[in-house]
Write a structure and sequence with these properties.
- This is DUF4416 family protein.
- InterPro entries: DUF4416.
- It holds the Pfam family DUF4416.
- The protein contains four helices and eight strands, in the order βαβαβαβββββα.
- The protein is of the alpha+beta class.
- It has one domain.
- Strands 1, 2, 3, 4, 5, 6, 7 and 8 form an eight-stranded antiparallel beta sheet that branches.
- The protein is globular and about 55 Å long.
């Protein structure tokens, strides 16, 4: 029996950054230099900003970036490894000034890549794990008990539902 070929999807990044050191525009431009023109969204709600401010300092903002072109699913690993290099490059005194979440949106689900193992995460190689963050069921976005607080509010869910509809159009030509 022939294996089913997985459809491509959209590559995603969330940049949580110090607004006195970086700008939304510069991070979007950086993303587009790496992966081409795409879409961006600056969420208003950042529930983990206080948590990250202990490491990164005050004045944290977030911007989401999404590719407009599709990528093979295997690229999640490569993109996450690149993001770790970016975080290191932007760090000051061994503290991150930008936290980069890398994810992959398919028609079926949304996965974040992480360096932290846990019972619900799957090893994908080179010390990177896949964290199933959302799944789509009957056109609705569903979360899990472990979905990060930064990804459960309606503002972000609407963004990912829109992104999934865009992906569906891309795949259907």
């Amino acid at each position: 029996m022939k294996p089913v070929v997985a459809t491509s999807g959209l590559l995603f990044a969330s940049f949580l950054y110090r607004s006195d050191l970086h700008s939304e525009t510069s991070l979007i431009q950086f993303w587009e230099e790496k992966f081409g023109k795409g879409f961006s969204f600056a969420p208003l709600n950042n529930p983990l900003a206080a948590y990250y401010s202990k490491e990164m300092g005050e004045g944290l903002k977030r911007v989401f970036c999404l590719t407009s072109e599709t990528f093979p699913r295997e690229f999640l690993l490569t993109a996450k490894l690149q993001s770790l290099e970016w975080e290191e490059k932007w760090a000051k005194a061994d503290k991150r000034m930008v936290n980069v979440d890398i994810g992959f949106l398919s028609l079926e689900n949304f996965i974040l890549a992480t360096t932290k193992n846990f019972s619900h995460r799957v090893f994908v190689g080179q010390n990177i794990f896949a964290d199933l963050t959302y799944y789509f069921h009957q056109g609705e976005l569903q979360t899990f008990p472990w979905t990060y607080p930064d990804y459960v509010d309606e503002e972000k869910k609407e963004f990912f539902l829109w992104a999934r509809s865009y992906l569906l159009q891309q795949l259907n030509g």
